[in-house]
Each structure stands twice: as C-alpha cells, then as structure tokens.
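Quick one - inputs below.
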Amino acid sequence: MNFSTLTSQFGALTFDGLVLGAIYALVALGYTLVYGVLRLINFAHSEIFMLGTFGALLSAHAIGLNAESAPRSGLALIGTFLLVTIVAMAISGLAAVLLERIAYRGLRRRGAGRLTVLISAIGASLFLQEAVALWRGRNYETFPRFLEKEVWFTLFGADIRSDKVLILVSAALMMIALERFVSVTRLGRGIRAVAQNQDTSVLMGVNIDRVVTLTFLIGGLMAGFAGSLNQVYFEQTRFSIGIVLGVKAFTAAVLGGIGNLRGALLGGLVLGVVESYGAAIFGGSWKDVVAFVILVLVLMFRPSGLLGETLQKARA
Amino acid sequence: MKYLSSVTDAVGDRWRELPKATQRLLTVIFIAGIAVLPMVQIPLLDTPQTDFPSLLFDKIGLYVLMGIGLNVVVGKAGLLDLGYVAFFAIGGYTMAQIGTLLHWSFWLILPLGVVIAMSAGAILGLPTLRLRGDYLAIVTLGFGEIIRITAVNVDWLGANRGVPNIPWPAAIGPLNFEDILNPKPFYWVLLALIILVIWLLKRIDRSRVGRAWEAIREDEDAAELMGVQTLKFKLWAFSIGAGIGGMGGVLFASKVGFISPDNFPLTLSVMFLAIVVLGGSGNIPGVILGALAISYIPERLRGFSEYRVLLFGAALVIMMNLRPQGLLPRRIRGKVI
Amino acid sequence: MPNESTLLEFKNVTMRFGGVTALSDVDISVGKGEIAALIGPNGAGKTTVFNIVTGVYQPTQGEVRFKGESIVGKKRSEITRMGLARTFQNIRLFAEMTALENVLVGADAHSKSSVPGAILTLPRKRREEREAHERANELMSFMGISKQAHLLAKGLPYGDQRRLEICRALATNPEVLLLDEPAAGFNPVEKEILGEQIRAIRDRGYTVLLIEHDMSLVMGISDRVMVLDFGTKIADEIPSEIQRDPRVIAAYLGVPVDAS
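Output:
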C-alpha cells in the first residue's frame, strides 16, 4: 500500500477519476433507465457500449483518419468529433433497440421469469462479443488520434488536458440534455409513468412497447456516446472491452441508486474518483478490484444506493 | 427442437414408470458401462485433437461434475452465479499451493479444497444473497474476475507464470497416477466422486432442504412467508455448489500438473452455465446431457469450434424464447403413484 | 376489544407509501377462536393490513402485537413460525412443485433439520419428515384435495389452487390464519362449501382473519366484522349490526362493492 502517491498527486487523481467517472456515468444511465422501466438488468448493455467504440473506430477509418494525419483544429476537429460520435451513438442506439426486440420483447410479453430473461441477455451478450471477435479479431485495435492531447494548464497538480476537458464538458452537456428530455417532453413523461406503474400507464393510454423501445434507444445512445469518448481517451478497443466496464457502470448505477438518473451520474463520478485513488494506493493492476469491492460494500450496507432507487421520484 | 424434446420427455416418462428395482439395476449397469469406457477403443469417438479416453476426464467428466455443482445453485435454488469458475480456481490453487509448498497428499487436499471453496462461497454469499437475484449475477461475475486478477497479481500464487509441478495423487492399490499417458485412474476417481456427489445431492433433494430450494426458486417471497428461512437455504445452495466447484478444481490441478490464470477465464463460467441451462435447469440427467453436448461437440467439430461461443450465444437466446425449460425439463408433470 | 384472549392486535397503525396514506391510525384486534372479517371497498387498505402482519411492510407508525409481543421488524419467516400464516389474493403457489410438496413446504416451517440431517439421515430428520407428510396428507384430505396431491400445483383447477393455498398456510400450524379473498372467482356453491370449511378450520382451534368481498359469505360465517374505508376503520361490530351501520352504508354507496 502506498499512500504517498495519493497525497502527493491528489488533484491529478481526482481530475482523472472524474473523467473516467463521466464515462461510467454515461453507461450507467443505460442500466438505470432500463431497470427503472422494466425492473431488469440489461446484461447485454456492456456490448452496446462495445459496439459504440467500434462505431467510432470504423467511422474514423472511413474518413481516412490515421495516426499520421496532422492533428486537426477548429471546425475540422469539431466536425470529426461529431461525426465519429454520431456514428457511434447511431450504432449503439440501433443495436440496443434490436437487442430489445430480439432478446427481451417476447419474454416480456410472456411474463417470463427473471432467470430466463437474464440468460437470454447473456446469450445476446456472448453473441455480440463473438461476432465482433470473429469479424475484427481478438486483439486491441488502435483508434487514430485526431485531437492533440495538449496540457493547457495545471490546477492543484492536475493536468487540464484537452481530451479530458472534451470528455467532461461533452458528457455534462449530454446529461443535461437527457435530464431535460425526460423531465419536460411527453415521451419522457411516458418513461416516468411506466417506471412508476406499468399497469396504470397502460390504462392511461401509454404505449408500453414504444416507451420500452425509447428507453433502450436512449440507453444505447448514451452508451454509444460513452464508447466514442472512451476511444478518444484510451485510443483502443476490442471485443471484450465491455465486460469490465459494464460491471463498473452497473456498480455506478447501484451506487447511486438504480433506477435513479441523477444517481447514475453521482455514482459514476464517485466510482471513477474512488477507483483512481484505489489504483494509487494499491497499484494499477488492482483498480478493477476496487470497483467490485465497492459494489459488494454498497449492496451490504446501502442497497438502495446513495440517492435511493426509482425513476419516478428523482425529478430527473 | 420440438422433436428432440418430445423424445426426451418420453424417455423421462418411461424411466419414471419403471419399478424401483429395475431403475437400480439399470443404474448399476449404466455406471459399469461408463466405468469401462476408457478400456474400449472406439475410434469413432476420437476427436481430431485427442483420443476419447483422454477426453473422458478433461473435459467431459470435469464438465459433468461442474455442471452438477452449478446446477445446485442455478437449477435448484434459482440463484444465477456467473462466476462459478472462481470456485474451480480456488480449488485449483489450493491443490497447487498446498501440494507444492506443504507437500500434502492429494487425498488430504481434496476435502480441504472443498471446504475452502465452500467457505469462499459462504463469505461471498452472506452479503449478496440477501439481495435481489439479478444483483447476485453481477456480483458473481465480478467475483470470478477478481479471483483471476488476484491470481495474476499475487506473486506468491505464481502470477502469470502459473504454478508448475503440482503433485499427482499417491497411488491407491493398483491405481497409479504417475503415468501421464494413462488417463484411466483419474477418470475413475472423478467418476467415483461424481457418483458420490449425486448420491449426496439426492438425499438433500428429498429432504426439506430440496423443497426449500425449489420453493425459493419458484417464489422467494411466498417461500419466506411460508416460514422458509430463505437466506439460510440460499447460503447452503451457494456453498454446496462452491464446494463441488472446488472439488473439480483440485482434481483438475492435480491432473494437469500445471495451472495458470489462463486456465480460469470468464468464458469458462459461461460454459458451466451453458451446461446447466442447456440440459434443463434442475435435473441431473439433463445436466449430464448438457455437459456431454458442451464438452464433446466442440472438440469433435474443431472446424466449427471458432464459432462455438457465437452459436452458443444465439442458442441461449433462441432457447429462452422457445424452450426455456431446457432439453430435459425438470419435470413435466408430477410423479404418478 | 382487547382482552386476555386477544391474539393479534394493531394499535394506532399508520402506513404511508411516499405521499399516500394507506392506513391511518388503525386499531384492529383478533381474539382467540373467532372468525373476524375485514371488509371495505377496493383500496381501503385491507391487504396492507395483511402485509403488515406478515412482515412484508413495516408500519410507518404504531404497534403490531401478536400474543402481546411486538412483531414489527421481525423476519417474515420468523413471523410465520411464530404462528401467523396467510394466503394470497393473487394465488402464489410454487407452480412447478406438486400440490403435496407445496403443503410440505408449509409443514417444514417447524422442522429444524438441515443439510447435515439430510445427508446423514439423522433420526430427527426422519421423524420431522414423517410428521410433515402426516400433517400434509391430513390437511389435504380435510380440504378435499388429496386426489391432486401428486399433480403439479400449476395444473390444478382454479378452485383447488385456492384450497391448496389454505392447506399450505395451515400446514405451518398457525394460531391465526389470514385468508385474503379466498372465495374470489368462486360460484355460489363453492362459496357455500368454503364457508363450511372456514368454520371447520375455526372449530379445529385456529383463529381466522378473513378479507372478503362476498357479503353473504362474510355475514354468514364471521363473528365480527371490521370495515376499512380509505385507510381508516369505520366500524367494528357483529355482522347484523354492520348491515345497519350508516357509515358502512355510506362507504359502500359511493364505491360499488364488486360483489361477485
């Protein structure tokens, strides 16, 4: 154990943890939304994220982006980021909707048990992983850098770097947009209504199938967005990248209170920061263990999470 | 699928209608037949990579044992364990460490490995089994990875290099385990252990414990309101399953003589789960059938083995939608007396 | 009114879910050996009472006592083993188990043997197993469903499923049996028989607390009727008085009773 790193680099660790946490939070939103509406853990959500990273990768290839091409700036930079991100979101969103159609809808209509649904989800998860592994191989593929990773200034020992700022700012904008959508629009109200009481919502004329599709779509879009950010930050991906990240994002959702949108945000950030500290104390190879231990501790002592469960009560 | 299931259903019915004595006799003949399997050379059964007798221990026999163990957790009590490989690894490392460092006999380490794995199951289960079932799935998934990461990171456990020179069991009578090319002794030990485990599980199954497990699987809240101490019985199921997994790990480590974290990947947990689900959660013949399918078919179809996980994933989705009860369902109707 | 023979007692119980008050300041008592009925319009809080008694919900305020001992915060399985067992409004049998096994699960409530007992076939395990079977068989013939003992619960006709639920609850050997709409979906003849059976259950020494919508059944068998309306108790009298109680009539006029 090594606490000196933690104290000497506290600012940097915190900042990096927040960046990581923003990605966790975006993926956690998908778990939380689906759980809020269907009371089901979308086990294959980690693969939706994984597909997003490949969406970003392939679109970058498609526009001829490579490591040698000169770092872009200004409009070209923004355009590249938007394009790559939108493709990632589109692929993840589409995949999430298809996933719901194929792996969940029939079972939901039949009122199948949890175990059945979960196994179907695991099947879908394996299928997606292997499909990508067979198609792209099992090794990491590098994502071409288009944003120069430039340190602008240092604050409390933290390097305020361009890519990290991009991740934090764009993730924040995305989450504000989502919160507005769910709390203001009619479709968002549908989601909250179904989350509160499915039977009543049907009686009130809410189309459950449409709400469920929408929920998966939003979760997928967020995961795709996270996939793109993950590429910008870590610059590599492969078929199995979703597994550990999925467990962590799920941990974030549970930590914040599953079913609760703001909880997912808070849980993601807290988890990212704690993991960053944990890696400093115990060494980087143990960082995946930190998230898991947190999950077990939360489940033991506060299973409803920091902000409590349920989608309808959180005004987000 | 429809056709296959009607055949398996019919076989199950016929079996249940047989008199007890006939059932016993057939079981003895069946076991004897299984025991002499490695003595007979059936070239037809050899696979491109391995001859059939070698395959009987690893993977077929081991998969049967692991399937039976996980079935207690998933099939009987309805608890979804996605990290069953963790207990296999705990058994394996118990054998490896105690065998190489303390030079204990395999025959002592075997029960010790079971006890350690059971304790690990209880320690993991106690905080998590109180919670909703789907949380358990994620926690166990994480646990499986943690055990592997620990093995990778802890130098004392051999880290990525693994642990070589794991001792084989001391000879018992004519059974000598020293000859690596002779798979028979290990196979017979494994077979004996499988029979012992099945026998013990049958006893538990026919008691209130078996009923409590089924009740929990069917409707946990209702079970608790009928006086079933759900946590206690879930813990039993979880740790019994863990113990059987540990047993498999001890056997595996002693047989192969060398283990490393690569022997315990996440996908192995998924394969074990596949055995249980494919066979029909809850009944032992189904699990054995599932283990045969999962262990043998991919070896046979080496050409397809690249696609096996893909096909398997698709099969799970299709099966849950069309025949969630598995190949050999638990029970179609009650026993007719 | 509470006296020495009071078994189950609610004192000023309030139950809130978020902003909704399901029960407000409710007093209920059930005396030994009586058949007490709990009636009221839909949503009046009847099933909430059952859920509080059996430990599914913890009351927001107030006390719940069984034989003088507070049962708030106790584990559900423990409450059942103390002597309070229930049936469910929407049948919740163990669908994939046989009828007999369903009843055995109830009868197991008082068994102490566990895995070691089962593996070693200890004498205590054998005795408990025998007693559980005896009790289960006896109860099934008492409720008239012994013929179905070896059918899967999900394969039983609807009425037998309801009767099986009563068997399963009785198998736990409760002092108070809580029946949640046991006659739902029954035809008049079946209701008649059920009424007789509930009386017979009482005559065996069980105390019964009954939630039921069917007024003829309630009035026919109950010793005392409590009426809930919007989470408050508005009457607690013998059946003949209830029918004349203006508050009860008012409560039922606004909201039609779904008397079937």
